[in-house]
Amino acid sequence: xxxxxxxxxxxxxxxxxxxxxxxxxxxxxxxxxxxxxxxxxxxxxxxxxxxxxxxxxxxxxxxxxxxxxxxxxxxxxxxxxxxxxxxxxxxxxxxxxxxxxxxxxxxxxxxxxxxxxxxxxxxxxxxxxxxxxxxxxxxxxxxxxxxxxxxxxxxxxxxxxxxxxxxxxxxxxxxxxxxxxxxxxxxxxxxxxxxxxxxxxxxxxxxxxxxxxxxxxxxxxxxxxxxxxxxxxxxxxxxxxxxxxxxxxxxxxxxxxxxxxxxxxxxxxxxxxxxxxxxxxxxxxxxxxxxxxxxxxxxxxxxxxxxxxxxxxxxxxxxxxxxxxxxxxxxxxxxxxxxxxxxxxxxxxxxxxxxxxxxxxxxxxxxxxxxxxxxxxxxxxxxxxxxxxxxxxxxxxxxxxxxxxxxxxxxxxxxxxxxxxxxxxxxxxxxxxxxxxxx
Length: 439
Description:
Blueprint: H1 21-57, E1 61-72, E2 75-85, E3 92-93, H2 113-118, H3 124-135, H4 141-155, E4 168-184, E5 187-203, E6 211-217, H5 222-232, E7 240-243, H6 249-253, E8 259-262, H7 264-277, H8 286-293, H9 297-301, H10 314-338, H11 341-354, H12 356-364, H13 373-389, H14 395-409, H15 415-422
Parallel strand pairs: 4-7, 7-8
Antiparallel strand pairs: 1-2, 2-3, 4-5, 5-6
Helix pairs in contact: 4-14, 7-11, 10-11, 10-12, 13-14
């Protein structure tokens, strides 16, 4: 165990009394930041001196000192480092025997934490300016881009090797604009295309917490995504698949032992679309919206969480399920009679998976989600951020930004845990304050 003692002596001058308590705090905070920089320099020099004694005894020559500036969580620190060489060998710093120090890089990894933490909330440019204001130093915009790319493998965290215990699977996708650089005939240009970020969540309890099992871009089909998902979690444990009914999800993810819950919120949105495709304009849709709204299942679908169902109450819910089925069947017949075939097929296919959460409630007594709102709310946060931060996103850049946003904005994720992986502390260095004495 190598022990270093560093003494720091402060002088505080007070012009008159009484002083404001907040002034004491502000002055102490300002001086301790400066003191921390000085302590770091002294710490480095102490280790350098002991390293030089070793190298000197092994035939190394002193080549003089080189000024180096580093920027990190303590702000900007400038020191001089001893350069040495043995014979005609490679020039090196003496201190590198005891400190892993980059030869050319000024920014240390800890310099990025504040900017990364702000990035899910504000633009790259604003996160840098705010980091500079708070800590008096920050990486540049390009450096932040490169660092986010460097740490991206540590951002995506998901279960692997058939993790067990997940019973509820939620699948969703959100449309985005992707920009790509296209080359041809000696020039480069940027083209925009429609894309999608697709995310799979899973929970062990009906109401969460939902963990991100993975995120994919629109190049992967739902079938490919499902295959990768079931490599990460055990499909045998799953009970319910929750989705907005997008084509391909049910076929790819639903196993024989699983039930499919269609999001009740999407039922409203998509019915409007199908009525429009059948030629019915907005003004004439209200009567059909009201009929769907009056179906009893929606009275329960509005609830986020309901209490466990007693045995005595189950006959009442069975009647709700029966009445809902009958009213949905009646709505299908009315739509067919009016010639709105597309909407009739949609409601017919919607009926069974729309009632899954009530059937599970009767069967198990536990309340299960009736919507994919948990996923939708998270996506709303993500989409708002990418819309505000920038218009020129590559698919790989969006994936990295989504992974960063998950750790900062999504429930159940801890930013400090992420920083612990990016900046792992082995506990190799520890420090205690031995005394603070006013003289």
